[in-house]
Amino acid sequence: MSRNDLFDQPVTLTEAAAVEEWNAMIRAFLAHGAATPVHLGKLLERAPDHAATHGLKGLFYALLGRRELMAEAAGALEMAEARLEGANARERGFVVALRHVLAGETTRAIAALEAILATAPADTLAMKLGHALRFIIGDGTGMRASIEAVLPQYADDHAGRGYLLGCHAFALEETGEYARAALTGRAALTLAPDDAWGLHAVAHVHDMTADARGGLDWLEGREAAWAHCNNFRFHVWWHKALMMLDLGQHDAALALYDSDIRAEKTDDYRDISNATSLLSRLELEGVDVGDRWEELADLSETRTEDGCLIFADLHYLLALSHENRDDAIARMMARLGADAARAGNDVEKRMAVPGLNAARGLEAFGDGDYGLAFAALSTARPHMQGAGGSHAQRDVFERLTIDAGLRAGRFADVEAILADRTARRGGHEDGYAAARRQMIARAGQTACAHGATG
User: 189, CA 20 to 30 Å: which among 5, 198, 200, 226?
Assistant: First the structure.
């Protein structure tokens, strides 16, 4: 017997109570809700032989990007594959996607989800999973194309329309359609008030258009839209801190780091990336962040062999290089080199490009060798989108590239990067870029003065 879920998609669960838990689980997942694993656990208790639930458990684990959780995801795949008899095509598609993710073949996993959408374009769960995987590999163009292909199939009263619009808003922002992204994100939140992804898409627009004050105003009073979240809530607070930083509110940003962004000292790579990238930005502005790096480096030392995502590895390396953990850095660089040399799957290919050059640049920056840092980071720069994440997240590497160039005296090259960075932001210059242009101007004036008196 088959029933339909809240998106009117078939699911081979026979009990109404099990379908209710399925619906609650996927709604929580769409909202980045902390309740997702709670509903997953209850569903497995009610339907222990449901292949798709085991498949989704594996995908949820795999999306966390940590080596020990990949073992859990592999166990879930084994359970799912042993229970495929009676599963429908949609459910089999989720299991196939998990199989490809565990093999490091992210693009094939996305193709399996796109196959579901080809016959069921209004399947919001398949849409969101594909969106998440494309985010991991930095495929903003594919993200947008996938959503816009299914958007016409979503009626105004479709249960997933708000979450779809939240994903569309983010994809629009990542592809430079800032005005449309802001409008779409606001519409998403109207339809789905718990859509933290749509809310955060609008925060991204404010970041990319150098409107930090407007970004703070947008987040102010909307905390309920992300209070229910898993650790994604720390990331939204991180966005608020970036806006404070651009406005020169350094003490407030550090206070937010302690009270919310790093409230829980987890080793989740997303939390580590929030923390390391914010501390890096603050220090580039001359802010003393105290001993906050130490616990991040301690956790990162245990992650040198992970190799799940180059995005995660680079943020671990930020902490390790800052604290001069030479043995851990050597282990990380050796493992990155071995992965890059194999380049046998999507994950390993990204370890090679942009991974190796970016990693070498971060190591050199930590050593104070700014010429080498600039050379390596500049080489990685055209390929950094392949590291995954968002423009805002990758901007820490852009800033380190620029500051390495300034410290190495490569002013003309830095001016070109600053101009390109501003152009990709729709011509909007933020406080960071304006301050760096002033540094270059002062350096030029000093050189002229020395020349005149030499």
Answer: 5
Give the span between the Cα atoms of 279 and 396, in whole angstroms. Answer: 10
CB 245 within 8 A of CB 285: yes
Q: Which two tokens stand for residue 401?
A: 């590239």
**Which pLDDT value is given to residue 447?**
62
**Alpha-carbon dihedral sign for residues 243, 244, 250, 251:** negative
196-227 burial, b at 16+ Cβ within 10 Å, e below that, comes to bbbbbbbbbbbbbbbbbebbbebbeebeebbe
How many alpha carbons lie under 13 Å from residue 226 in its C-beta half-sphere? 24
Query: What dihedral do alpha carbons 311, 229, 254, 430 form, nearest 10°?
Result: 60
> What's the N-to-C CA distance of the chain in angstroms?
89
Those residues whose C-beta lies under 8 Å from the C-beta of residue 254, and which sit 6 or more positions away, are 282, 287, 289
Give the whole-angstrom CA distance, residue 236 versus residue 450: 47
Rg (CA), the chain: 23
User: What DSSP assignment string belongs to 46-87?
Assistant: H-TT-HHHHHHHHHHHHTT--HHHHHHHHHHHHHHHTT-TT-
Q: For residue 231, what is the DSSP state?
A: T
Residues forming a β-bridge with 4: 10
Q: Tell how far CA 286 is from the center of its chain.
A: 26
Q: Domains plus CATH for the chain?
A: 1-137 (1.25.40)
Cβ atoms 380, 354 nearer than 8 A: yes
- Give the rounded distance of the alpha carbon of 190 from its chain centre: 24
| Residue 4 DSSP label | E
Closest Cα partner for 401 from 371, 438, 443?
371
Q: Note the pLDDT of residue 444.
A: 78
Quote the pLDDT of residue 448: 65
pLDDT at 453: 56
- Report how far residue 410's alpha carbon sits from residue 301's, in angstroms, rounded to the nearest whole number: 33
Contact in structure between 170 and 197 (CB atoms under 8 Å): yes
CA 128, CA 438: separation in Å to the nearest integer? 43
Instruction: State how far the Cα of 326 lies from the Cα of 169, in Å rounded to an integer.
Output: 42
Which amino acid belongs to residue 239? H
- Please check whether residue 317 is in contact with residue 332, taking contact to mean a CB–CB distance below 8 angstroms: yes
- Reported as half-sphere exposure (CB side, CA atoms, 13 A), residue 222 has a value of 25
Compute, in degrees rounded to 10, the torsion defined by CA atoms 369, 353, 296, 139: 130
pLDDT tens profile 286-344: 999 999 999 999 999 999 999 999 999 999 999 999 999 999 999 999 999 999 999 99
Say what the pTM is: 0.96
Chain centre distance of CA 104: 17
